[in-house]
Amino acid sequence: MNDTPTSCDAVVIGAGVIGSAVTLELTRRDLNVINLDKLPAAGYGSTSSSAAIIRFHYSTLSGVALSWEAMHWWRDWPNHVGSAEHDELAQYVKMPMLMALAPGAELPPFFAHFDTLGLPYRMASMDEVDERWPGFDWGLYGPPAALDDTTSSFWADEPKGRHEKALVMEDAGFITDPALAAQNLAAAAVAEGAEFRFRSEVVSIDRNDDGTRVAGVTLADGTAISAPVVINVGGPHSTILNRMAGVDGEMARRGRALRREVYLAPAPMERFDSEGFIMGDLDVGVYFRPERGNNILVGSTEPACDPLVWVEDPDSLDETLTEDDFQVHMLRIARRIPGFGIPHSKQGLVAMYDATEDWTPIYDRSSLDGYYMACGTSGNQFKNAPVAGWLMAELVTAVEAGHDHDVDPLTLDGPVTGMPIDMRTFSRLREVDASAGNTVLG
Ligand SMILES: Cc1cc2nc3c(=O)[nH]c(=O)nc-3n(C[C@H](O)[C@H](O)[C@H](O)COP(=O)(O)OP(=O)(O)OC[C@H]3O[C@@H](n4cnc5c(N)ncnc54)[C@H](O)[C@@H]3O)c2cc1C
Fold first, then answer.
1. In the chain, what percentage of residues exceed pLDDT 70?
2. 262/50 Cα distance (integer angstroms)
3. What is the pTM (predicted TM-score) of this model?
4. What are the structural domains of the chain?
């Protein structure tokens, strides 16, 4: 048991990229914050497995505004984390993002959001795309099929047609080292007075005597930490924490741990890592981005043919790559990149999303006064982490000052872009609307 006096203004559970960002932002508001994580360092949870892609197409207007705002924060990373020149920092690699469109295809809702908010984008013909990035097959093969579905036209020799044009967003990109980004935020928070305690597992979220307000947390070694504010940023463990707090039952939306595999394979064309692009390709059911060493990082866009593998106990995730899943993803990307081939050795990782039904996160208070949550991040919130930390700090400040966020949800203007972020979008109580995301793209 740790017998250091333990009380503070706010406890943040989780030192992933979002938990570290929340800690930094609360510390910058002069709160005395203790961050607790059961792992040995910041960014070792699901953050460490992130593809860390920065892009802007979300199904909700506030999702688009949040990601556009956040891109500006990554651009200004050294200033944001207040680092000295010698500090090792995560890097934002700017890289265009493509989304190909079939002839006559209905435009996804994010186009209207881009226009409403004035985001820059370009429609390129496939000939233009071919010229800039030769070696791709822009045929229409979808919807994707399972490996053993021999009747599906997805595996036919010839495509059903050809994509007509592609959305190109030049401001997209990725962060080189997602765990390092979390560590940069944590170091910045420590420099401003926050305390991080690693190997500290929260086993109980405690209430005051009449049970109406959070009073703090208890750790596995028996240490009790009292605090009037506790924030759950537990990633794939967030629902377990919400159950501990006794608030899980009130939630219309909640996260569930979803098993995901991501693969690394050699790029079959030269200089893809420096001159390539990022793609969310629903037609062949994969997303991909360049990775150093002229590799391609490949993940899934959850096509309907692939069953989702939910993980009941996030502490017993099976971390072995699945041969069939590996093969099907390599064959799917080979539809887009002829000659891709199946690499001789499987490389990749197994990780978990904390996925909600509408692939939208929950940045909210709860019915238990003082207990908040930044969770349900659905495989798509790395890019938003620094601003999510700021949203949570604004929310805590307003609610603790008496604002009734459930009755009158906050709308916050992005400090850099001025774009409005309507927090109703991220409410635990929201209804799922018809245009909500149904893949990791959100
Ligand atoms: C494979 C993969 C690819 C992804 N790709 C992208 C992408 O390209 N772009 C994008 O924007 N997003 C992406 N994401 C999503 C993004 O990485 C996550 O949304 C983000 O990293 C979540 O950060 P977090 O801080 O909320 O959670 P985590 O990083 O999971 O941190 C949660 C922390 O809570 C701690 N914890 C949990 N329970 C307890 C407890 N009881 N006591 C103490 N500590 C506890 C854990 O140890 C952990 O360190 C991806 C995610 C995955 C898994």
1. 99
2. 9
3. 0.97
4. 10-87+177-254+358-426 (3.50.50.60), 93-174+256-355 (3.30.9.10)
